[in-house]
Design a protein that fits this description.
It contains 13 helices and no strands. The protein is an all-alpha fold. α5 crosses α8 and α9 crosses α10. The protein is elongated. The termini are far apart.
């Protein structure tokens, strides 16, 4: 039974995860490193983080206590361990509001992560608005920049913040012409 819980133990030694600054621009990379660090103990952490990200409503202690891991342990034990780990890697500003980020349930690391994700990457009005502004002002690649990567990054933004544009192929086509090098634009328009 102890082994079931032990496989989820987050390594505290040799941890080079930096503190999350509380800046939206830094969240995505910090999140990737957090997930990679936790997944080093078991890949199932990736599923847990995905579940937190996809959860529409609060992840409560009551719910977590009903999920059993091995004999005599619930998912609440994992939530507490995650919260204990996360708070050591958060800026002072976020740390000060720890209880609110945890949904009013001290130790609820799943809810803490869910709220961080919602606030800084997926779902808050501010994130959607910022994403749309970024999409609308994307621009052409800088000289020497990898055009393929520039276009792929734009496609990711488009799928996240421009779903309505994807329903309009002509608008999508015209917008794509605005983010590629001018010489490619001319070639595509002249030789469709």
């Amino acid at each position: 039974a102890k082994d079931a819980l032990a496989q989820f133990k987050i390594n505290r030694k040799d941890c080079d995860l930096k503190k999350f600054t509380g800046k939206m621009a830094d969240f995505k990379m910090w999140k990737k490193r957090l997930i990679d660090h936790c997944a080093a103990s078991t890949g199932r952490w990736k599923e847990i983080f995905k579940m937190c990200e996809d959860s529409e409503g609060p992840i409560t202690r009551h719910y977590l206590e009903s999920l059993h891991i091995g004999s005599g342990y619930s998912a609440w034990s994992l939530a507490e361990d995650l919260e204990n780990f996360l708070v050591k890697h958060l800026s002072d500003g976020i740390y000060e509001r720890r209880e609110a980020w945890c949904g009013g349930e001290d130790g609820n690391g799943f809810e803490l992560y869910r709220n961080l994700f919602r606030e800084f990457e997926g779902g808050s009005t501010l994130v959607r608005m910022g994403g749309r502004k970024l999409l609308n002002s994307y621009g052409r690649p800088q000289r020497g920049e990898d055009v393929q990567k520039h276009f792929e990054d734009w496609q990711i933004l488009l799928s996240k913040f421009g779903a309505d544009l994807m329903m309009n192929p002509k608008e999508c086509f015209y917008r794509s012409l605005e983010i590629i090098p001018a010489e490619f634009e001319e070639e595509i328009v002249m030789n469709p």
